[in-house]
Amino acid sequence: MANVGWRTIYKLGVQVPGSITNKTDRILQMPTGGWAQVRSADDPQSLRGEGLDFVVLDECAFMREESWSEALRPALSDRQGQAMFISTPKGRNWFWHLWQRGQDGGEWQSWQRPTGENPFIAETEIQAAQHDLPERIFAQEYMANFLDDAGGVFRKVMDAARAMPAKPEPGAQYVMGVDWGRYEDFTVISILDMAKHEMVAMDRFNQIDYGFQTRRLKALAERYNPTTIIAEKNSMGDPLVTQLQKDGLPVWGFTTTNATKARIIEDLSLAFERSDLAILNDPILIGELQAYEMERLPSGLVRYGAPPGMHDDAVMSLALAWYACASNAHRPAVSYQG
Known about the structure:
Elements: H1 2-13, E1 20-22, E2 27-29, E3 35-37, E4 54-58, H2 66-77, E5 82-86, H3 94-103, H4 123-132, H5 135-141, H6 157-160, E6 174-179, E7 187-193, E8 198-205, H7 210-224, E9 228-232, H8 237-246, E10 251-254, H9 258-273, H10 283-291, E11 293-296, E12 302-305, H11 313-326, E13 336-337
Parallel strand pairs: 4-5, 6-9, 9-10
Antiparallel strand pairs: 1-2, 2-3, 6-7, 7-8, 10-13, 11-12
Helix pairs in contact: 9-11
């Protein structure tokens, strides 16, 4: 994030005769004696220093509050400096409290502007984002709304918990999503009825032995005869996927990156919002879904995952199964890697 801000200042600064730029320290010195510097707030203590006339905190809702309260606010006192806070909302955290002070009047002022008011972003792009993204994510990222549950990802989870475990039916097509367990994690296998968009079975276990895991999966595959099995390929999943393919199972490996994970999680979130999916009322699955979090990084990327100390194996397994179901599992998507 600091590099993004520095690139803009550098491009402007080199146009001023007599200016001096230091790329290492990201500082611009003007011939009149003024200077501007860009620093990262990753470590709040690194922001301590001499007095400041003006400070801009970009994407400050994703910084720690002590960056402002312990480092930058005191640095403004010597010169009675000013500050500007710019950010996408992240729930009702310290940035929201500052924004509220601006709404109350006085020496603070605050504004809220949606992405649609940006003349450099096409309206069609915003419309596409509204269609593709879950409602709450669009409301935060594009409408600049402060949300109470900004960390949560899945809504209407209990409304979707209406499916019952079901035995295989003649003529039905099934898909499976597999998230392999590692060490303290669990291996979870989710099975969906493609036509009904209903979850019919889930298996969860935590024995790491490769042979045990593949036997357990094969037993379910023999019962439901899935059209496609999408299994995580990262780390220990690679040899398991390879072996299952050699055994003749319709397995496709899914390489999990921040980008591919965001895609399948957002697709699953949309399915809940649109009531397109029915899931089992399993307490472990429900708990993982309700606790699942989204974190927007200072770089602008979004990271999804379980809170510290919790698992997300059931969520990932369901997301993989839904991805197979929604993508017409008989035609593997380009993200799959055999």
